[in-house]
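During the no-cost extension, the postdoctoral fellow (Dr. R.K.) reprocessed legacy sequence entries with the updated structure-token encoder. One reprocessed record is reproduced below for audit purposes.
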Amino acid sequence: MGLRIALVRLQDTKDHVRFTLHVNPSVSYSAGVQPGGYLSSSGLQVARGRCPFLEREGCYVAAVREGFDIEAFASSVDRGFVALQDAERRLDKCGFFLRGQRRSPHGDGHTAAAIKLLKSSEDNVFAYRLTWLEDARPTGWTTHLSVLHPPLTPELDRALKFFNLNGEAEAPDARERRRLLEMARDAEKLAGDDDRKLTRLATEVESLLNEGFSPIVFCH
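Re-encoded structure tokens follow.
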């Protein structure tokens, strides 16, 4: 990745000492994700002007603790950037481009004159939906990711923000899915070791679902 890195000890007063990390990417690429954007998304702040410690124009800075392992940091940053480049290539093949990716041109991605669900899928973490939106504005596709078991971990939240995914609106069925999961958890808490009523109810509801019905259960 070609980084110049300096670990600096700053003494503000007799009894107050700080440590800062200074990083300057010495290379840039003609296409794809850039080292500067990667460092910024990793939490380092952009420092304008000439860095006196690296003797280069511009650097990325972060406050660190005493004893910070600069060699381990350099190795981890390199591996992370390689993994990000690989992720970008894979996403490109899916038609999801990181370069120039910004907020959806269709507002929240859910409001349009006509909306068509094209594809849906899910894994152990996300439910995926691909929709086609038609409006007076340009038409286009919108990708929806709904977390099956919220809340997001801080690491996953940062990764989604790095990909410029708009997390302000919910996917079409996210709210309903979340409510059903909450109800299922509440039911598990209420169930005893031998709750024959709940067992019989589950059998009947499953049978109705298999027949294509959407049963509504009232409890008192």
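Strands lie at 3-11, 17-25, 45-51, 56-64, 114-122, 126-134, 140-147. The CA atoms of residues 117 and 131 lie 4 Å apart. The remaining legacy entries will be reprocessed before the final report is submitted.
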